[in-house]
Amino acid sequence: MSSSTAQRGRPRSATSRSAVLEATLRLLVSRGYEALSIEAIAVEAGVGKTTIYRWWRTRADIAVEAFFEDTKGEIALGDTASAANDFRAQIAALALLLSGARGNAFAEMLGGSRHDPALGRALRERWLNPRRAWGFNRMSRAATEGQLRPGVQIGAALALLYSPLYTPLLFDETTPSDEALGAILELALSAIFNGEPS
Predict the structure, then answer these.
(1) What three-state secondary structure class fits 9?
(2) CA-to-CA distance for 176 and 168, rounded, in angstroms?
(3) pLDDT tens digits for range 121-144
(4) 107 with 21, same domain?
(5) Helix (H, G, I), strand (E, B) or coil at 85
(6) Which structural domain range is residue 103 located in?
(7) Which of 99, 105, 122, 175 could form a disulfide with 60 if both were Cys (CB 3.0 to 4.6 A apart)?
């Protein structure tokens, strides 16, 4: 293959890959994960199934990557002088995302991961583990900087902050209202962090 042919192929491949991810997200939001199939994605994206299998092993891998790519710029993983503010901003952005149509799609994937090993693996690798790592590292640094109240355990603190968002999704319930979540979040932050300017 000539270099000119390769150069023409790369943009075409990138375009096809983007088309697949965009098509997957549209189907995920409009039909839900259970109705998602490689065949439907291929038709929606205007590509062959072999093109899809070139990059992804399963529909779970495509679905999670499509969701991740669409939302990765919306969930701030802050690193300011205030850990409390970093968690406040991150959880507020996450709550906003989960309250919309994409949140419904995510809730279905999260529930489905209990009996779909491929989906569970994809969610852990692309979505949950990176956020857990950020939360643990940010909270650990806050501890070394003296921002945590005495006796606060990092794992318990993270569970306290994120459970109000994720737990309802596992029981097909909606996330708390902005007012309710704000009250829960501020109570949790005050229990975890030393008093500091917000």
Answers:
(1) helix
(2) 8
(3) 999 998 889 999 999 999 999 999
(4) no
(5) helix
(6) 72-192
(7) 122
